[in-house]
DNA sequence: CTGTTAGCGCGTTCAC
DNA sequence: GTGAACGCGCTAACAG
């Protein structure tokens, strides 16, 4: 493990000054072609790589964006993350990814670390009960994903549209007894917004509304099914595909496969296990990309206004 | 957005020298308590955070470890990642996570970036067909996960033991016609090692071996089931829980629920959808932790020998 | 115990 | 076109 070369070593080897090497590295036009070639040759020969630490210190920008997610095992989050990373890589940025496990305390700790790292920006995956005010020191170089915010740029999912599309689908099929399984109101998006869209649809179309809530887990949905359905039930719409999987399993066990199932998230597993179920593609991947693009744009040109983007969704039928 | 304070600002504000502030920051004992308190007060008051870029440059170590994974959406990988991250955070390291999507080319590009970032070490999640030689510049500050290597420290899963445990379980139940669904031999671990363990068990116990291979996907497993089983089949062991889910679904459709199912990976979904299936917990989370610990140990004390660790596994029955 | 000094590797003025 | 000199924020070595 030999000590890595510095820009000065290259300069000496090429018989030029430090700054000339620096210019070559940064594609500065003011270098004679022959000199450039000579320097480049030395660089290639030793495959010299300029230190980003030094560059970061000098330029006051690290080329790193901090990404704070709640849970890497979440399908929505890791899908968005993949889209986001590709966009960042393409622009020469790296990501410092940190996981909060839904703990506001960990989020705060991570933000502190990211501040010391001089990250150029932050992408924050919102979760139920998170405290966005901790992002203040980073504004306007941050984007929040999956929740709305008045204070920061945001990319959110179309919770309202997703539920409405599933409901409209069943409604168009002539179904009228459509029940809904959601999660705690405390959750702004998956909990409150989606339940609200359900009620709203029922009102508009004069449908009998019947809604239950449970924990966001397969088992909870499974158990909640019995108290949600009755002999009239024609369809169950769920606030997420995880819930839909739980409900579908229970309905299968009960032999109630006459009941239609709708979910949100377009999870592979739901389509595979219960092909008859419908789901809504929320566009996690694209939302991730969009969040990254938004952040990068903010880094380039200090923004005039706070931007909000709602990711379009679309129904996926068998 | 006011310009962040530097250690010099703090020194002036506290009426001391730069290095005294530095000593306070690094818990150097040689500071009078009263002075320390005075400096700390100023630090707290302005919630000053020392720049890691500068520190990295000075210390020639960035406090960052590069983590290269194949696919964030993989259950095994993101589970291991979570374990790994917690361990790194606890020791004050951050992770630069990069995704290869199984592309060796991307892996190489990521490694180049990580080298310029002066990362202190690398944790590389092995995938089928990956070229470990690209890690050479980082040795001995790297650990590979999920595959074996003679050249680098590694943490691998007990592929042999996992298959053997499932087989032994079925064998103990008196089952003798146990078939196996695997993936391409080209994959060293999930493909070759697990198939080999199957054959080996059959030989030892004089069981008729019947093995098929398919792509690693729910649908492929679903379709492969028909040609794998026959009227005698008593159990199907799968090289992964994904395959097991595909097979189980097909068997359910066929009404062949007399056939026992065994998988590897202890995936939540398998246990929920098919509670009668058995699976093996490979210890992804712990393997991730262990990989991080191994790397950190190597960073502390330059290692004498290349360490290899096989993560113990255990059967999970209903 | 504490202040002063000298770099770490690089980019960016300035002169030449 | 090119090189020398300076400074980014911090830590280590040396004085006091």
Automatic annotation (TrEMBL), chains A, B:
One Pfam family of this chain: Peripla_BP_3
Keyword hit for Secreted: no
Protein name: Trehalose operon repressor
PANTHER family: HTH-TYPE TRANSCRIPTIONAL REGULATOR TRER, LACI-RELATED TRANSCRIPTIONAL REPRESSOR
Chain ranges of the HTH lacI-type domain: 5-59
Keywords linked to the UniProt accession: DNA-binding, Transcription, Transcription regulation
Organism: Salinivibrio costicola subsp. alcaliphilus
Lineage top rank: taxon: Bacteria
SMART domains: HTH_LACI (SM00354)
Record-linked InterPro entries: HTH_LacI, LacI/GalR-like_sensor, Lambda_DNA-bd_dom_sf, Peripla_BP_I, Trehalos_R_gpbac
Entries under Gene3D superfamilies matching the protein: 3.40.50.2300, lambda repressor-like DNA-binding domains
